[in-house]
Design goal:
148 residues; two-stranded antiparallel ribbon; alpha+beta; two-stranded antiparallel sheet
């Protein structure tokens, strides 16, 4: 009987370094690809540009991302008012009317106008930016990890 054994415990540091280096490279590539797709999807929108956040360590592992330089990018992504492509957050809790109480002002009853939320002539049409960017980033991440 011929047996052989390989003790790899001496090489764990080297393996870990290589895995971390490949992972960071793949995450950076995924973020860049996501930013390219997000820029392409947001062409013509008012000063909407994207910044790549390169791979960095987190408490759970590694992460990379893209960040919009415009604070209202989600309105361009999902739309607003009558052209909104998503349901409103907490839609079941929205009241038709409510009492407004402010200091120094007599309380009054405010009424919600439902046609504001459903009128197709109002609002911004969503451009669907985040989902294609996320998909492109995932594809780039998987492709980079599969490369040798």
């Amino acid at each position: 009987m011929i047996t052989s054994s390989v003790n790899s415990y001496d090489f764990f540091d080297r393996f870990t370094e290589q895995i971390e280096r490949r992972t960071l490279h793949a995450l950076n590539e995924a973020a860049r690809q996501g930013a390219i797709v997000a820029d392409r999807q947001s062409v013509g929108l008012h000063s909407l540009t994207w910044r790549v956040i390169l791979g960095h360590g987190t408490e759970d592992g590694w992460a990379s991302a893209i960040k919009a330089k415009h604070p209202l990018w989600h309105i361009y992504d999902f739309g607003s008012l009558g052209k909104r492509g998503r349901t409103l957050k907490g839609n079941d809790r929205r009241k038709d009317s409510w009492t407004v109480r402010k200091r120094g002002i007599n309380p009054y009853v405010a009424h919600r106008h439902p046609e504001t939320l459903t009128d197709p002539d109002k609002g911004i049409k969503g451009r669907t930016i985040s989902n294609p960017a996320r998909t492109a980033g995932r594809k780039a991440l998987i492709a980079a990890l599969r490369r040798r």
